[in-house]
Design brief:
The chain is α+β, with helices and mostly antiparallel strands. The protein folds into three domains: 166 residues, ATPase, nucleotide binding domain (Nucleotidyltransferase, domain 5, 2-Layer Sandwich); 91 residues, Nucleotidyltransferase, domain 5 (2-Layer Sandwich), CATH 3.30.420; 69 residues, Alpha-Beta Complex (Actin, Chain A, domain 4). The protein is built from eleven helices and 19 strands. The strands form five sheets. The chain has a six-stranded mixed β-sheet with strand order 3-2-1-9-10-19, with helices on both faces. It has a five-stranded mixed β-sheet with strand order 13-12-11-17-18, sandwiched between helices. It has a three-stranded antiparallel β-sheet with strand order 5-4-6. Strand 2 and strand 3 form a beta hairpin. The longest helix has 24 residues.
Length: 348
Amino acid sequence: MSFFDNFFEDIGIDLGTANCLIYVKDKGILIDEPSVAALNTKTNQILAVGHEAKKMLGRTPPHINVIRPLVGGVISDFEMTREMIHSFLKKLNEQNIGRFGFRKAILSIPNNLTEVERKSVEDAALSAGCSKVFLIESPVAAALGAGLLIEEPQASLIVDIGGGTTDIAVISMSGIVVSKTLKIAGDRINEEIIRFMRDEFKLIIGDLTAENIKISVGSALPLDERLEIAVRGRDLTSGLPREIIIKNSQIRIVLARLLKTIVESIAEVIEETPPELVGDMLDRGIFLCGGGALIRGLDEAIKKEIGVETRIVEEPLTCVIRGIGKIVDDFERYKNVLNLSSPTQINL
Protein backbone atom coordinates (compact mmCIF):
# COMPACT_ATOMS: atom_id res chain seq x y z
CA MET A 1 0.00 0.00 0.00
CA SER A 2 1.37 3.40 -1.00
CA PHE A 3 1.25 6.57 1.08
CA PHE A 4 -1.56 7.97 -1.08
CA ASP A 5 -3.79 4.95 -0.44
CA ASN A 6 -4.46 6.34 3.03
CA PHE A 7 -6.44 9.19 1.47
CA PHE A 8 -8.91 6.94 -0.38
CA GLU A 9 -11.78 4.88 1.01
CA ASP A 10 -12.96 1.35 0.26
CA ILE A 11 -16.73 0.96 0.27
CA GLY A 12 -19.46 -1.61 -0.19
CA ILE A 13 -22.80 -0.83 -1.85
CA ASP A 14 -26.01 -2.81 -1.60
CA LEU A 15 -27.77 -1.26 -4.58
CA GLY A 16 -31.25 -2.62 -4.00
CA THR A 17 -34.52 -1.97 -5.77
CA ALA A 18 -36.05 -0.62 -2.56
CA ASN A 19 -33.04 0.70 -0.61
CA CYS A 20 -29.41 1.64 -1.13
CA LEU A 21 -26.98 0.95 1.72
CA ILE A 22 -23.32 1.96 1.76
CA TYR A 23 -20.66 0.49 4.05
CA VAL A 24 -17.33 2.27 4.57
CA LYS A 25 -14.27 0.24 5.57
CA ASP A 26 -13.74 0.17 9.34
CA LYS A 27 -16.60 2.66 9.83
CA GLY A 28 -19.74 0.57 9.27
CA ILE A 29 -23.04 1.32 7.48
CA LEU A 30 -23.20 5.09 6.94
CA ILE A 31 -25.91 5.34 4.25
CA ASP A 32 -29.27 3.56 4.43
CA GLU A 33 -31.83 5.30 2.23
CA PRO A 34 -34.57 4.44 -0.28
CA SER A 35 -33.49 3.97 -3.91
CA VAL A 36 -35.58 6.92 -5.06
CA ALA A 37 -34.71 10.18 -6.83
CA ALA A 38 -36.80 13.26 -7.66
CA LEU A 39 -36.13 15.13 -10.92
CA ASN A 40 -37.34 18.59 -11.99
CA THR A 41 -38.05 18.04 -15.69
CA LYS A 42 -38.09 21.80 -16.42
CA THR A 43 -34.54 22.40 -15.17
CA ASN A 44 -33.31 18.79 -15.48
CA GLN A 45 -31.99 19.03 -11.91
CA ILE A 46 -32.07 16.41 -9.16
CA LEU A 47 -34.21 17.82 -6.35
CA ALA A 48 -33.76 15.05 -3.79
CA VAL A 49 -32.66 11.47 -3.31
CA GLY A 50 -33.34 8.86 -0.65
CA HIS A 51 -35.71 9.65 2.22
CA GLU A 52 -36.56 13.14 0.97
CA ALA A 53 -37.43 11.86 -2.51
CA LYS A 54 -39.57 8.99 -1.18
CA LYS A 55 -41.71 11.47 0.76
CA MET A 56 -42.64 13.01 -2.60
CA LEU A 57 -44.04 9.78 -4.13
CA GLY A 58 -47.54 10.48 -5.43
CA ARG A 59 -47.45 14.08 -4.13
CA THR A 60 -45.72 16.10 -6.84
CA PRO A 61 -46.80 18.52 -9.60
CA PRO A 62 -46.45 17.35 -13.23
CA HIS A 63 -42.97 18.84 -13.75
CA ILE A 64 -41.42 16.82 -10.90
CA ASN A 65 -40.84 13.13 -11.55
CA VAL A 66 -40.14 10.82 -8.62
CA ILE A 67 -38.22 7.90 -10.07
CA ARG A 68 -37.16 4.52 -8.78
CA PRO A 69 -34.20 3.91 -11.12
CA LEU A 70 -33.94 0.19 -10.33
CA VAL A 71 -36.69 -2.26 -11.23
CA GLY A 72 -36.49 -5.96 -10.40
CA GLY A 73 -32.89 -5.60 -9.27
CA VAL A 74 -31.89 -4.19 -12.68
CA ILE A 75 -31.03 -0.61 -13.61
CA SER A 76 -33.89 0.80 -15.67
CA ASP A 77 -32.65 4.41 -15.68
CA PHE A 78 -28.86 4.59 -15.89
CA GLU A 79 -28.53 8.36 -15.57
CA MET A 80 -30.71 8.54 -12.46
CA THR A 81 -28.91 5.57 -10.89
CA ARG A 82 -25.58 7.29 -11.42
CA GLU A 83 -26.86 10.55 -9.98
CA MET A 84 -28.38 8.76 -7.01
CA ILE A 85 -25.13 6.95 -6.16
CA HIS A 86 -23.20 10.17 -6.70
CA SER A 87 -25.53 12.00 -4.28
CA PHE A 88 -25.07 9.32 -1.61
CA LEU A 89 -21.28 9.45 -2.03
CA LYS A 90 -21.47 13.23 -1.75
CA LYS A 91 -23.19 12.78 1.63
CA LEU A 92 -20.15 10.76 2.70
CA ASN A 93 -17.90 13.57 1.45
CA GLU A 94 -19.80 15.97 3.71
CA GLN A 95 -18.79 13.73 6.63
CA ASN A 96 -15.14 14.06 5.52
CA ILE A 97 -15.20 10.51 4.15
CA GLY A 98 -13.83 9.80 0.69
CA ARG A 99 -13.02 13.42 -0.08
CA PHE A 100 -10.06 12.27 -2.20
CA GLY A 101 -12.05 9.51 -3.85
CA PHE A 102 -13.17 5.92 -3.46
CA ARG A 103 -10.53 3.38 -4.40
CA LYS A 104 -12.57 0.19 -4.39
CA ALA A 105 -16.31 -0.53 -4.41
CA ILE A 106 -17.97 -3.91 -3.92
CA LEU A 107 -21.56 -4.06 -5.21
CA SER A 108 -24.18 -6.73 -4.68
CA ILE A 109 -26.25 -7.95 -7.63
CA PRO A 110 -29.11 -10.45 -8.01
CA ASN A 111 -28.36 -13.90 -9.42
CA ASN A 112 -28.54 -14.58 -13.14
CA LEU A 113 -27.94 -11.05 -14.42
CA THR A 114 -26.83 -10.86 -18.03
CA GLU A 115 -23.41 -9.46 -18.92
CA VAL A 116 -25.09 -6.28 -20.14
CA GLU A 117 -26.94 -5.86 -16.83
CA ARG A 118 -23.75 -6.52 -14.85
CA LYS A 119 -21.91 -3.96 -16.96
CA SER A 120 -24.60 -1.34 -16.31
CA VAL A 121 -24.19 -1.79 -12.54
CA GLU A 122 -20.41 -1.46 -12.82
CA ASP A 123 -20.62 1.59 -15.08
CA ALA A 124 -23.04 3.34 -12.72
CA ALA A 125 -20.59 3.00 -9.81
CA LEU A 126 -17.60 4.00 -11.94
CA SER A 127 -19.41 7.06 -13.29
CA ALA A 128 -20.37 8.08 -9.74
CA GLY A 129 -16.73 8.23 -8.68
CA CYS A 130 -15.49 4.75 -7.73
CA SER A 131 -12.11 3.74 -9.13
CA LYS A 132 -12.49 -0.05 -9.20
CA VAL A 133 -15.70 -2.10 -8.99
CA PHE A 134 -16.20 -5.73 -7.96
CA LEU A 135 -19.50 -7.58 -8.02
CA ILE A 136 -20.90 -10.19 -5.64
CA GLU A 137 -24.16 -12.12 -5.85
CA SER A 138 -26.62 -11.00 -3.17
CA PRO A 139 -27.19 -14.50 -1.69
CA VAL A 140 -23.46 -14.98 -1.10
CA ALA A 141 -23.20 -11.58 0.60
CA ALA A 142 -26.33 -12.37 2.63
CA ALA A 143 -24.89 -15.69 3.77
CA LEU A 144 -21.73 -13.92 4.91
CA GLY A 145 -23.78 -11.29 6.70
CA ALA A 146 -25.77 -14.03 8.45
CA GLY A 147 -22.56 -15.50 9.81
CA LEU A 148 -22.80 -18.73 7.79
CA LEU A 149 -19.57 -20.61 7.11
CA ILE A 150 -19.83 -20.50 3.33
CA GLU A 151 -16.17 -21.45 2.78
CA GLU A 152 -16.79 -24.98 4.06
CA PRO A 153 -18.03 -27.92 1.93
CA GLN A 154 -21.47 -27.71 3.52
CA ALA A 155 -24.75 -26.40 2.15
CA SER A 156 -26.27 -23.11 3.22
CA LEU A 157 -29.71 -22.38 1.74
CA ILE A 158 -30.42 -18.66 1.80
CA VAL A 159 -33.62 -16.94 0.64
CA ASP A 160 -33.25 -13.19 0.14
CA ILE A 161 -36.65 -11.53 -0.37
CA GLY A 162 -35.88 -7.95 -1.38
CA GLY A 163 -37.83 -5.18 -3.05
CA GLY A 164 -37.48 -6.24 -6.68
CA THR A 165 -36.33 -9.88 -6.60
CA THR A 166 -36.30 -12.97 -4.43
CA ASP A 167 -32.97 -14.78 -4.65
CA ILE A 168 -32.87 -18.43 -3.60
CA ALA A 169 -29.44 -20.06 -3.51
CA VAL A 170 -27.58 -23.06 -2.17
CA ILE A 171 -24.04 -22.01 -1.27
CA SER A 172 -21.04 -24.25 -0.62
CA MET A 173 -17.28 -23.70 -0.88
CA SER A 174 -17.75 -19.93 -1.35
CA GLY A 175 -19.84 -20.43 -4.48
CA ILE A 176 -23.44 -20.87 -5.59
CA VAL A 177 -24.29 -24.50 -6.39
CA VAL A 178 -27.95 -24.05 -7.38
CA SER A 179 -29.94 -20.84 -7.55
CA LYS A 180 -33.14 -19.26 -8.76
CA THR A 181 -34.25 -15.63 -9.00
CA LEU A 182 -37.90 -14.57 -8.96
CA LYS A 183 -39.40 -11.22 -9.88
CA ILE A 184 -41.81 -11.75 -6.99
CA ALA A 185 -40.78 -9.66 -4.00
CA GLY A 186 -41.80 -6.58 -2.01
CA ASP A 187 -42.75 -4.39 -4.99
CA ARG A 188 -44.88 -7.12 -6.60
CA ILE A 189 -46.70 -7.64 -3.29
CA ASN A 190 -47.46 -3.90 -3.15
CA GLU A 191 -48.83 -4.03 -6.71
CA GLU A 192 -51.12 -6.94 -5.80
CA ILE A 193 -52.42 -5.06 -2.75
CA ILE A 194 -53.17 -2.00 -4.93
CA ARG A 195 -55.02 -4.22 -7.42
CA PHE A 196 -56.95 -5.95 -4.63
CA MET A 197 -58.08 -2.64 -3.13
CA ARG A 198 -59.24 -1.41 -6.53
CA ASP A 199 -61.07 -4.60 -7.54
CA GLU A 200 -62.64 -5.53 -4.20
CA PHE A 201 -63.31 -2.15 -2.61
CA LYS A 202 -63.25 0.26 -5.58
CA LEU A 203 -60.58 2.24 -3.74
CA ILE A 204 -57.49 3.64 -5.43
CA ILE A 205 -54.36 3.79 -3.27
CA GLY A 206 -50.67 4.51 -3.89
CA ASP A 207 -47.45 2.56 -3.37
CA LEU A 208 -46.71 4.01 0.07
CA THR A 209 -50.18 3.11 1.35
CA ALA A 210 -49.87 -0.42 -0.04
CA GLU A 211 -46.50 -0.84 1.63
CA ASN A 212 -47.94 0.37 4.93
CA ILE A 213 -50.78 -2.17 4.64
CA LYS A 214 -48.28 -4.98 3.97
CA ILE A 215 -46.14 -4.05 6.97
CA SER A 216 -49.04 -3.40 9.34
CA VAL A 217 -51.34 -6.38 8.72
CA GLY A 218 -49.63 -8.70 6.22
CA SER A 219 -49.16 -12.34 7.25
CA ALA A 220 -48.43 -15.71 5.66
CA LEU A 221 -50.48 -17.74 8.16
CA PRO A 222 -53.64 -17.10 10.20
CA LEU A 223 -52.86 -15.10 13.34
CA ASP A 224 -54.15 -15.49 16.88
CA GLU A 225 -54.51 -11.72 17.12
CA ARG A 226 -56.84 -9.69 14.92
CA LEU A 227 -55.07 -6.91 13.04
CA GLU A 228 -56.80 -4.02 11.29
CA ILE A 229 -55.75 -0.85 9.54
CA ALA A 230 -57.66 2.20 8.33
CA VAL A 231 -56.93 2.78 4.65
CA ARG A 232 -57.61 6.06 2.90
CA GLY A 233 -57.77 6.54 -0.84
CA ARG A 234 -59.88 7.78 -3.74
CA ASP A 235 -63.23 6.20 -4.47
CA LEU A 236 -63.13 4.72 -7.97
CA THR A 237 -66.78 5.63 -8.67
CA SER A 238 -67.19 9.10 -7.17
CA GLY A 239 -63.58 10.25 -7.28
CA LEU A 240 -63.91 11.49 -3.70
CA PRO A 241 -61.82 10.57 -0.63
CA ARG A 242 -62.93 7.48 1.30
CA GLU A 243 -61.69 5.46 4.26
CA ILE A 244 -62.22 1.75 4.91
CA ILE A 245 -61.00 -0.78 7.48
CA ILE A 246 -58.90 -3.66 6.19
CA LYS A 247 -58.33 -6.88 8.18
CA ASN A 248 -55.24 -9.05 8.14
CA SER A 249 -57.31 -12.02 6.89
CA GLN A 250 -58.13 -10.08 3.71
CA ILE A 251 -54.51 -9.20 2.98
CA ARG A 252 -53.43 -12.78 3.70
CA ILE A 253 -55.52 -13.86 0.71
CA VAL A 254 -53.59 -11.40 -1.48
CA LEU A 255 -50.22 -12.68 -0.22
CA ALA A 256 -51.11 -16.38 -0.42
CA ARG A 257 -50.56 -16.88 -4.16
CA LEU A 258 -47.31 -14.94 -4.32
CA LEU A 259 -45.84 -16.61 -1.24
CA LYS A 260 -46.91 -20.01 -2.62
CA THR A 261 -44.78 -19.33 -5.70
CA ILE A 262 -41.77 -18.50 -3.51
CA VAL A 263 -42.22 -21.69 -1.46
CA GLU A 264 -42.57 -23.79 -4.63
CA SER A 265 -39.37 -22.23 -6.00
CA ILE A 266 -37.50 -23.11 -2.79
CA ALA A 267 -38.65 -26.71 -3.25
CA GLU A 268 -37.44 -26.67 -6.88
CA VAL A 269 -34.00 -25.45 -5.84
CA ILE A 270 -33.76 -28.20 -3.22
CA GLU A 271 -34.78 -30.80 -5.83
CA GLU A 272 -31.87 -29.70 -8.06
CA THR A 273 -29.35 -29.76 -5.19
CA PRO A 274 -26.89 -32.68 -4.89
CA PRO A 275 -28.07 -35.25 -2.30
CA GLU A 276 -25.11 -34.73 0.05
CA LEU A 277 -25.87 -31.03 0.33
CA VAL A 278 -29.58 -31.70 0.86
CA GLY A 279 -28.59 -33.66 3.95
CA ASP A 280 -26.75 -30.59 5.24
CA MET A 281 -29.94 -28.54 4.92
CA LEU A 282 -31.75 -30.78 7.37
CA ASP A 283 -29.03 -30.00 9.91
CA ARG A 284 -28.59 -26.30 9.19
CA GLY A 285 -32.02 -25.27 7.94
CA ILE A 286 -33.19 -22.50 5.62
CA PHE A 287 -32.22 -18.89 6.30
CA LEU A 288 -34.46 -15.94 5.39
CA CYS A 289 -33.30 -12.36 4.91
CA GLY A 290 -34.44 -9.17 3.22
CA GLY A 291 -37.52 -7.10 3.96
CA GLY A 292 -39.87 -9.90 2.89
CA ALA A 293 -38.53 -12.11 5.69
CA LEU A 294 -40.41 -9.86 8.13
CA ILE A 295 -43.83 -10.93 6.82
CA ARG A 296 -45.51 -12.48 9.83
CA GLY A 297 -45.41 -16.26 9.90
CA LEU A 298 -43.44 -16.67 6.67
CA ASP A 299 -40.75 -18.77 8.35
CA GLU A 300 -43.39 -21.08 9.82
CA ALA A 301 -45.19 -21.33 6.47
CA ILE A 302 -41.99 -22.40 4.70
CA LYS A 303 -41.15 -24.90 7.44
CA LYS A 304 -44.65 -26.37 7.18
CA GLU A 305 -44.46 -26.83 3.40
CA ILE A 306 -40.79 -27.82 2.97
CA GLY A 307 -40.31 -29.76 6.20
CA VAL A 308 -37.02 -28.02 7.02
CA GLU A 309 -36.32 -25.74 9.97
CA THR A 310 -36.52 -22.14 8.74
CA ARG A 311 -34.94 -19.19 10.52
CA ILE A 312 -34.97 -15.44 10.02
CA VAL A 313 -31.43 -14.10 10.23
CA GLU A 314 -30.52 -11.38 12.69
CA GLU A 315 -31.29 -7.92 11.29
CA PRO A 316 -32.55 -9.25 7.93
CA LEU A 317 -32.79 -5.79 6.32
CA THR A 318 -29.02 -5.20 6.58
CA CYS A 319 -27.85 -8.77 6.07
CA VAL A 320 -26.47 -8.23 2.54
CA ILE A 321 -24.58 -5.02 3.31
CA ARG A 322 -23.08 -6.55 6.46
CA GLY A 323 -21.78 -9.41 4.33
CA ILE A 324 -20.31 -6.94 1.85
CA GLY A 325 -18.79 -5.10 4.81
CA LYS A 326 -16.90 -8.22 5.84
CA ILE A 327 -15.33 -8.38 2.39
CA VAL A 328 -14.48 -4.67 2.43
CA ASP A 329 -12.80 -4.98 5.84
CA ASP A 330 -10.88 -8.17 4.97
CA PHE A 331 -10.54 -8.16 1.19
CA GLU A 332 -7.64 -10.64 0.99
CA ARG A 333 -9.54 -13.30 2.90
CA TYR A 334 -12.82 -13.03 1.00
CA LYS A 335 -11.76 -11.94 -2.48
CA ASN A 336 -12.29 -15.49 -3.81
CA VAL A 337 -16.08 -15.02 -3.50
CA LEU A 338 -16.02 -12.06 -5.89
CA ASN A 339 -16.17 -11.96 -9.65
CA LEU A 340 -12.43 -11.35 -10.04
CA SER A 341 -12.06 -12.42 -13.65
CA SER A 342 -11.93 -8.86 -14.98
CA PRO A 343 -12.72 -6.17 -12.41
CA THR A 344 -13.84 -2.96 -14.08
CA GLN A 345 -11.72 0.00 -13.12
CA ILE A 346 -10.52 3.46 -13.96
CA ASN A 347 -7.24 5.03 -12.94
CA LEU A 348 -7.16 7.58 -10.15
